[in-house]
Request: fold
Amino acid sequence: MTASDWFLWLGIISLVTTTCALVRIKHLWWFMPLYFFVAWLTGELAVFHIAWQAVASILLIYGGALDSANGVAGLVLCLLSWAGLYYFHRQGVASAQPLEDALLPVLGPDYRARVAAAGRPPLPETASAADWRRPFAMSRPGVERVRDLAYGDAGVRNHLDIYHPHNHGGNCPVLLQIHGGGWTIGSKDQQALPLMNHLASRGWICVSVNYQLSPGVKLPQHLIDIKRALAWVRENIEKYGGNPDFIVTTGGSAGGHLCSLLALTANQPRWQAGFEQADTSVAGCVPFYGVYDLLDRHGLRGISSMTGFLEGNIMPTSPNTDPEIWDALSPIVQVHPDAPPFFVIAGTHDSLVFAEEARHFAEALRKASRQPVVYAELPLAQHAFDVFHSPRSDNTVFAVTRYVETLYADYLGRTGAG
Reply:
């Protein structure tokens, strides 16, 4: 092929991938995983795609790509693609505003003053290029990691890691992170690394846990493992500088489902066989793009229903045989007045777990819970948008930091701890 032909193909591929990032598609059957990966990686790495495509374009033009109509068409398509990518990038940069708009009415206009009065480090505001220009650089100065501590007897699937600041005075707030992966894959060292490293650099103790996976085990075993991990953390975290009386939980996708269930089923003996007396309550919950309704009772998924996958791989029975267990393991059914504070986060363009499900869950929480509920829906955000650094990811990390720091400041104000 000539340089003009290569330029045309570059333009076509560029525009197709950019379109995937900008256009929300909900139903693609077996093509959905491919669409998701293209949309996710193109959007969250938009400026890097512009950069490599620009370099490729310059080389092709230098090689004579504009000597024919194909090359000119390729240039036009690339320019359109770059315009779309730049728009996506600017939306990521601007995501700080909808996050703050969600936080402010719930936390109150004085929340920053409350955090400062509690002696906490200054709150982060808006992500800058220094935050996201190295998307896969996760470590932070002064943060150390203790690996593979056993909290149960299921081998590596019952291990956890602890991220902590090198120098701390003890009694630090604690974050419990639960990974996603459709209940079938995933590991404690793959997700929420930007959030955990950032919080640890501010004096938090962050714990990331493994749990047993399907189809080897079925729900509720995943939840039982997470509760056992929380019980271990509450009993042992003081040795690593953590405050066992202040633990918040977070997780994405299946982890969003599990952390929400954990928060909503505190101290229920049904899910704590053998450690019924352990305190499995949490001080707050921050689920990202979680699955909140296993039965899709609002009819949101349509032809993209998860019922067959769940029945065949994750759940112990069919919904017709035992609908009660499906309800018991659906966070939207388990909301109640004594639920802890929640910060529910979703993306408008999530192709795997639709934002509408998060909206229904947040509304159910607001109707039932006595505690504040924050809901933020980020424009153009795809599933897993927070896995690595990007403008949107880092703005969300900073917003979650402001949220959990406010919860902790209010806890210190109530208890005088610290």
Notes: Residues 102-415 form a domain with the Rossmann fold fold (CATH 3.40.50.1820).
